[in-house]
Amino acid sequence: MLASCTAAPPISAPPSAGATSTTSPLISTPLTSRQQETPPTGSTHSITTGPDSALAALHSLPVRGRAPRTGYSRGRFGNAWTDDVTVNGGHNGCDTRNDVLRRDLAALVTKAGTQGCVAASGTLRDPYTGHEVKFLRGEKTSLLVQIDHVVSLSDAWQTGARALGATQRQELANDPLELLAVDGPTNQAKGEVTPPPGSHPTGPTAANTSPGRSR
Fold first, then answer.
1. pTM of the prediction?
2. In terms of DSSP bridges, do strands 132-136 and 119-125 run parallel, antiparallel, or are they unpaired?
3. Helix, strand, or coil here: 213?
4. Residue among 116, 162, 125, 124 at smallest CA distance from 141
5. Rounded to an integer, what distance in angstroms lies between the CA atom of residue 133 and that of residue 122?
6. Beta strands of 137-199 (E only): which ranges?
């Protein structure tokens, strides 16, 4: 999606042994299953969109000619994973990357002291390969699960986003309807591609973007 490198939120060391399923005021029940990991209705961290709705939206997009990539940069889409947006999950006190991780990871454990925001560990069923990927937050392990834009930001720029205002582009880049958690190495190998609707291997296809790089 995004061609240039943009720093993601700082990646801290792996969670201590004391990191447990969060039972903060925002999430009042233990996060012991895929169903329980989603904050209850009314939680400030709750987001409701998922892969199925993203694919449906992709099918509905009109097909138009591609404009030149001239002028594109990641910076044209604002700060990576900012919470300063009005799309679903915006202004909930948690960055976009962690919003998506909490939505897409099973057996989710959140980092203590973050009010249920920061994903510390969990399991991902990769939508590309169907493989199970273990996620553990840490300097050398966080990149094993990356956040992928369904329509790459480079492609979006060439097919109409260049005409949007800066605020609209930032909203687009952080809209959970446009984002999936995916296997990092598979994501890196895909390159700057937006697949056609319906051409997904085990789930909705998406284009390349990582915590530190978006295409």
1. 0.64
2. antiparallel
3. strand
4. 124
5. 9
6. 145-149, 179-183
| pLDDT at 56 (0 to 100) | 79
For 112, the token pair is 């203590």
- How far apart CA 143 and CA 155 sit, in angstroms, is 23
Question: CA 136, CA 168: separation in Å to the nearest integer?
Answer: 32
What distance in Å separates the CA atoms of residue 146 and residue 168, rounded to the nearest whole number?
23
What is residue 175's predicted lDDT score, i.e. its pLDDT?
97
**Cβ within 8 Å of residue 40, ≥6 positions away:** 27, 28, 29, 46
* DSSP 8-state secondary structure symbol assigned to residue 207: B
Residue 88: per-residue pLDDT: 95
Length of the chain counted residue by residue: 215
Distance, CA of 103 to CA of 179 (rounded, Å): 11
Share the mean pLDDT of the chain.
76
The answer to whether the beta carbons of residues 112 and 20 sit under 8 Å apart is yes
Model confidence band, residue 2 (pLDDT cutoffs 50, 70, 90): very low
Average pLDDT over residues 100-112: 98
List pLDDT tens digits, range 179-190. 999 999 988 887
